[in-house]
Amino acid sequence: MSELPLDAYYDLTQIGEVAVSPAGDRVAFTATEYDQAADEAVSSLFVVPTDGSREPHRLTSASGAASPTWGPDGDRLAFVAARDRDAEKRVGWRDRDDEDAGDAEGDASEDDADDESADGEGEDHLGGDDEPKPQVWIFDLALGGDARQVTERDEGVAGFDWSPDGDRLVIESRDPTDEESEYLDQVREEGGPIETTRLQHKVNGAGWTDDVTRYLFVVDLDDPETDPRRLDDAHGGGAFEDVAGMDPTWGPGDRIAFTSCRLDRPDDTTVRDLYAVSADGGDAERLTGGDLAHGAPAWHPDGDRIATTASDPDDPPAPAEVYLVDAAEGEGDDPDADDRDAPTSVTAALDRTIARGGGVEWVDGSIYTRIADESHTRLVRVETDGSAERVFEAQGRDRAMVGFDIADYGATAVTVLSEPESGTDLYAVDVTDLDAAAEPDSLRRLTSVNESLTDEFPMPEARRVEWESDGWTLDGVLYHGPDVDPDDGDHPLVVAIHGGPMSYDEPVFSFDHAALTSRGYLVFRPNYRGGTSRGREFTAELSGKWGTAEVDDIAAGVESLADRGWVDPDRVFGHGFSYGGIAQGFLVTQEPELFTAAAPEHGIYDLRSAFGTDDTHVWLEAEFGLPWEDPEAYASSTAMLDAGNIETPLLVMAGGEDWRCPPSQSEQLYVAARKQGVDAELVVYPDEHHNIGDPDRAIHRLEKILGWYETHDPAIEAAD
User: Mean pLDDT over residues 244-267, rounded?
Assistant: First the structure.
């Protein structure tokens, strides 16, 4: 079996967002590709007919396209991208070259400033950064031609939606005051000092936070000379606003829904209330009660109800559920009157969490959403009375649904299905066939974005495995090469631990899996207690007591595979990212003989020193309390206190700007291992957040992990 070369990562394509046109005849989607020359990831925009009659058509490249959203006419497609500014078609701002043209000498400085900004505005616009900021662009697919830029916000655009008549947009954008602009200029141009009074002083991926408020603005597409109109009471707020956004959603009756946190201590909670405001302005009306974290609002066509996904910040193990929110326009002088009906969950009876990235779609009075169900992402149809039915049996349990959208008119659905052997691709199906017991004739594959990889190199096969631990029957996914039979026995094993921990693993297409299995490894992805997809009780098994259930479950899973004769117990390797790295830290301190070598990535190993230096103080308090009030809870969930037990060679990896799991945590684990003479190496990627970024970093990571395993593999040592 030939090995998958690691530089084939540059040939990988990963599908992102999908948006079906209103009539259901086309679907727009984003796809991340990897530019080897520039050594960067690029998100491009494509459109493909849902009847499968043509290959996808590329609309953009090298522009970082995101948030594709169809206009109500189905001919216009808007998206957000940080492209070079469209100097020929200025829409949505005034052209200063034509303003006060009679006084050329007096306007020289303004002309110079306009010429400089014509090259695009970057994240550090006020500091002179020439990189463009994300703006809204619109393709008119009926007329053809390139996209037209319709916004120019100094701080960029974070979200948007179309008005039902298609002549306006609502956009979300930061709007600094003059004083705030001076501070941003100082930080961006001079590097600081950083000054803050915010409790949520930094957020992973966004960096140090500031006091700039984000607002909603209305953009008139029919009057390009008119500046966007700010809705003064439609403003954001909250600890994670920089990454969660405001979810602006334009509904019937010219009302706009959005999320915000306006509690007394907005940085001390993850609550996000749902609001509604008139597109003409005025006071925003709070629709929810300040106790849940709402998101992804979807208006019912009657305009009196909104479906959202929401979770309870004070109950971390509780499933995220679909709620119905009373959105009838309030009466009287108090826009926040308490007499409206409280939001009601319509998925509570399922005891299943909404799958990550899952939204809600209205079709004929029913709601479609994706849930995590027994280590499997499932599509369900939910009625407003709380009854629910699992649909789309054609998916099966051997592939994962990682995306979904339905046409506004409800005739066509598009799903993104991920299959270990054949890739992750778009499929269209008639909505009427979602109830089919077998694969319907209307199911058609629209893309084959990784065909060159899957045709040329061996992709892994996957099987689900089960084992017992502490009275629970657990499951996981085992990947192996197509020419490998686990029953042949004594295979080297890589235990790849999912993060979260509130997550789960199911069979998916993965470059990492293929790189490992093509080199002879079995890859085991265990679904341990504390994850999701099996109800609140299962998730609560780990809440507030890290380093307990997951250690027992993963160790029992490895032992089960060894007992079957599939695995050589002297050649067991491990890695995990985020909570997977945290779990790896507990495993090497509590089960020092389990792994031959391990590579914990971007983890936390001392919960006490993490508090306040990472960005998760709200979550940690909800799960463990405060460290000065309950120090034992933090100590008992700290792997560093058992670091004297480490015997496993450790490759410890971190991101230099990871504020979710700060690099200092990895330094502590590394130093603890080295202090005891254990073979260890520390790898820090200086500019990386809590992610795996550019392709050279992703390839280097795999090279290091594979090299670490090979260095400590007794079979390779014996052969040498």
Answer: 97
End-to-end CA distance of the chain: 21
> Given this model, what pLDDT does residue 85 score?
61
The model's confidence at residue 103, banded by pLDDT at 50, 70 and 90, is: very low
Cα–Cα distance, 659 to 291 (Å, whole number): 26
Among residues 508, 473, 528, 478, the alpha carbon closest in space to that of 395 is found at 508
DSSP secondary-structure letter at 58? E
Cross-strand pairs, 260: 273
Q: What mean pLDDT comes out for the span 430-440?
A: 95
Strand, helix or coil at 439? coil
Average pLDDT over residues 13-34: 97
**Cα(566)–Cα(548) distance, rounded to whole angstroms?**
26
- Beta bridge mates, 217: 171, 230
With H, G, I as helix, E, B as strand and everything else as coil, classify residue 438: coil
Measuring CA to CA, how many Å separate 351 from each of 118, 396, 534, 587, 705? Answer: 53, 21, 8, 30, 38
| Predicted local distance difference test score (pLDDT) of residue 330 | 76
Q: Give yes or no for a contact between 704 and 649, defined as CB atoms under 8 angstroms apart.
A: no
Alpha helices for 296-422 (secondary structure H): none
Mean per-residue pLDDT, 498-513 = 98
pLDDT score for 610: 97
Q: What is the pLDDT of residue 129?
A: 54
Domains located in the chain, CATH noted: 6-452 (2.130.10.120), 460-713 (3.40.50.1820)
Q: What's 616's DSSP letter?
A: -
Task: Kindly state the tokens that stand for 435.
Answer: 């109830």
Mean pLDDT (whole number) for 716-720? 77
Note the residue count of the chain: 720
Torsion angle, CA of 477/481/483/486, rounded to 10 degrees?
-40
- Rounded percentage of the chain residues whose pLDDT exceeds 90: 86
- Alpha carbon 492 to its chain centroid, in Å, reads 32
Chain centroid to Cα 411, Å, comes to 28
SS3 488: helix
Percent of the chain with pLDDT over 70: 92
Residue 636: both structure tokens together = 């008992």
Alpha carbon distance 577, 435 (integer Å): 37
| Secondary structure tally for the chain: helices H, strands E | 14, 38
Q: What is the largest CA-CA distance in the chain?
A: 87
Position 105 pLDDT exceeds 60 = no
Nearest to 527 by CA among 542, 512, 505, 507: 505
Q: Hey, what are 492's tokens?
A: 């080297």
Q: Which residue has the tokens 């007591």?
A: 545
User: What span, in angstroms and rounded, lies between the C-alpha atoms of 637 and 544?
Assistant: 8
The neighbour count for residue 270, using CB atoms within 10 Å, is 20
The helix/strand/coil state of 357 is coil
The token pair at 263 is 């509690």
Query: Which of 353, 648, 399, 384 is closest to 502 using CA atoms?
Result: 353
CB-CB neighbours of 628 under 10 Å: 9
